Structure formats: C-alpha cells, structure tokens
From TrEMBL:
SUPFAM superfamilies: Protein kinase-like (PK-like)
Domain Protein kinase: start-end pairs: 49-359
Protein name (database record): Protein kinase domain-containing protein
Comp. bias (Basic and acidic residues): 261-274
SMART domains: S_TKc
Family annotation (Gene3D superfamilies): Transferase(Phosphotransferase) domain 1
Chain positions covered by the region annotation Disordered: 248-274
A GO MF term: protein kinase activity
C-alpha cells in the first residue's frame, strides 16, 4: 500500500483569496502523512539526521503573528510526495534526503541500491547510481525502511548553457546506464523524474528542497554558477522497480511482466495484454526519450545527437542499440566535436530575436571568461 496524498495539498496550491487567513491556518497544521515524520523527529535526530523546523516538537509557524503568508516562509512548505523528507546530517552538516519505503511493495529497492553503491562498485568512475548512505529500520513498523541519500536537484534546473554541458550530461547518462547493465541491473524506470544531479558546488548557499528557486533559509532567490564553471555529477535514482540478474545472464535474455514507470510512451508497453518484455531494451528507450524530450525538442545546437537518440527510441526493441553500443557510438560523435562547437550556446527555438540577442551577449561574456581561465569545454566533474 502507499500513502494517499492529503486533499488539503491541492487546497494549498490553489490561488489565495483576499485575506489568505484560512490557508495560513491550514498550512500551520501538519498534514496526516507529515505527522509520520514529525513523530520520528527525535528518533531520527538521535541517529544523526535532523528534520526541518516544521517537524520539530512544539513547532510554531514562523508566519504566525506577522503579516507574511505561509508560502513566504521556509516552514510553510512540504513535499507533495509525502514519502520524502529532507534533513541535515548533523555530523557532517550535509543535506540529505530521506525516503520511506515498504519492503513488501518494493522488496529490491534497498538491496539493489546498496549493491550498486557499496564495495568496489561505490568508487567505480562510471557509477552514476545515487549513493545509499544508510538504511534505517523504522522503530514502529517492521515492514518500513528509511533510505538516507544525498539531497539532489532535478537535472534540468537550471537549464544547460552550452553544447558541451549537454554532451557531458549525455556522456554521464550513457556510461551510468552501461554500468548498471554491465552489473546486470535493469532500472525499469529511467524516466524524466528519476535522473537528478549533485549540484551542491553550483549553488551558492544551497537551495530549498521544496521551493528550488529559493535559498535554503528563504532569504532570497538562489544564485548559481553554470555547469561549465562548477560541473555537476548526474545520478539515476529510485530503484523501486529495478531487477538484478545473475552476472552470467546475457542482456538479451531476461523478460519481465510489464510494469509501467514514469515514461508511459515505451512502445512495447502500449498493449495492456502484451507478454513479458526485455527490461534492458526498455531502459535504452527511456534514457533516449529523456534526452529527446528534455533537450532535443525545442532547442538548436545539438542536432548531431538525433541519429543516436532516434535509434535508442526505435519502436522495435530489437532495433535499439545496447548500452555498450550507445557508449561506443557516442564516443565516435564526441571525437568529431571541436572546442568551438562545445562552447556554443544552446538556443531555445521559442525565444524571440530580442531575447536571443540578450542571451547571446551574456553567453559570450561567460565564454570569454571560460577561455581565459582555461576551463575545459566539456565540464567533467572532479572524481
């Protein structure tokens, strides 16, 4: 079973009335799923993870007694996905994400996540699976686990500035997919929302985990560097639907009953009566489709990726390249790209002439700075 979203969440996201009084008071009450986290505040703190002020015992909303609206305050926000909560790792002062899972519903999530990020695999240079820092057994519910992971950001926010930044994103994604498949793990849900980035070095003072445009303390809008100046590392997250096979299993062999993840467009999943399908080929499609939807549609400058992405998203699963082939073909593409191309600006087709002129000027200013400081056009993060 899963938590049913509290209907009051929809109320909070609706337009405010003239006074906003009702919503101020509604936001001052924890939603039912939030109470689960609040009840574990001290237990988590004893284990080194401190939740945000909203979940502290005796919490008093910071907007109470002021003219502020709840949405103007840090503690007026909560995750829509109430299986998630952010916290601070007290020992290291780092922000982490906590995710509660049901072992009976997703019996392999913790196991596969730990397998991919432990031992020699943890430091493998091609590993782009979100690290599982710790697995906590809930003190009250035997079937409930809490995964502790780094706090990450959606990969498209902010959007890519240069061709080189897009190319590096693709490189990391492809090598990460190959790494999983080499270790006989099929992700089965490589969709738009399950690819994130460690952007800690990019953002000055961090970002709020719910309202990403705000600083952590809500003191203003976030400030950040480009990916070229502070390269992020990209990660696959959420192994709830994943499966792991014997190392000797050929990638073409496994078949699994169709489970529709975040990407509902996988061709072989369209027929609800379709027989079991190869999950590795579906992974190839999903990763290709992320790049097609998030980057290729509505932009100019990376058309050289189209043939590879078209092959990855082929309607016939047998016509898609393997992860090994994707990496090899991508390397061939990369070898043909010069520094001038990699430093070029990603252009949004919907932007008008005036906007493009402004963005081009700002881009050239940054570009000259990158050249003078000898920043590479392919922003590879430090290992």
């Amino acid at each position: 079973m899963t938590d049913v979203p509290d209907p009051r969440l929809a109320t909070l996201t609706a337009p405010l009335d003239s006074s906003g009084t009702g919503k101020r008071e509604l936001a001052a009450t924890l939603f039912k799923p939030e109470v689960w986290w609040a009840e574990r505040y001290q237990w988590l703190k004893d284990r080194g993870y401190e939740l945000r002020p909203r979940y502290r015992p005796g919490w008093t909303p910071s907007w109470r007694g002021t003219k502020k609206q709840f949405y103007q305050c840090e503690d007026g926000h909560c995750f829509v996905d109430t299986n998630l909560a952010d916290a601070v790792c007290v020992k290291y002062g780092k922000f982490v994400m906590l995710k509660k899972i049901w072992a009976a519903v997703h019996p392999y999530e913790a196991e596969i996540g730990q397998f991919l990020t432990s031992g020699s695999l943890a430091t493998h240079p091609s590993n782009h699976c979100i690290p599982i820092l710790e697995v906590l057994q809930d003190p009250e519910e035997e079937d409930r686990l809490i995964l502790v992971m780094p706090l990450l950001k959606m990969f498209w926010d902010p959007f890519f500035d240069t061709v080189g930044e897009v190319v590096e994103f693709c490189r990391q994604l492809f090598e990460g997919l190959k790494f999983m498949h080499d270790n006989r793990v099929a992700h089965r849900d490589c969709s738009y929302l399950n690819i994130m980035m460690d952007a800690e070095s990019m953002f000055i003072g961090g970002w709020h985990p719910v309202e990403h445009v705000k600083k952590r303390d809500f003191s203003g809008e976030v400030s950040y560097y480009t990916r070229t100046k502070r390269p992020p590392k990209y990660y696959f997250i959420d192994f709830g639907l994943s499966r792991r096979y014997d190392p000797s299993t050929p990638l073409s062999e496994p078949v699994e009953p169709v489970i529709r993840g975040g990407d509902k467009t996988v061709p072989e999943h369209q027929d609800r009566k379709c027989p079991p399908q190869n999950p590795f080929r579906a992974d190839i499609y999903c990763v290709g489709n992320v790049i097609k939807q998030a980057i290729l549609q509505g932009t100019r400058g990376v058309e050289f990726l189209v043939p590879l992405i078209d092959s990855m998203t082929a309607a016939d699963p047998l016509m898609r390249p393997s992860a090994d082939d994707v990496v090899d073909q991508f390397q061939t593409i990369l070898q043909g790209l010069g520094s001038w191309t990699l430093r070029s600006r990603i252009i949004h087709t919907e932007d008008g002439a005036v906007v493009n002129a402004f963005l081009a000027t700002a881009h050239w200013y940054r570009r000259i700075g990158h050249v003078l400081t000898r920043r590479p056009p392919l922003p590879v993060p430090p290992s």
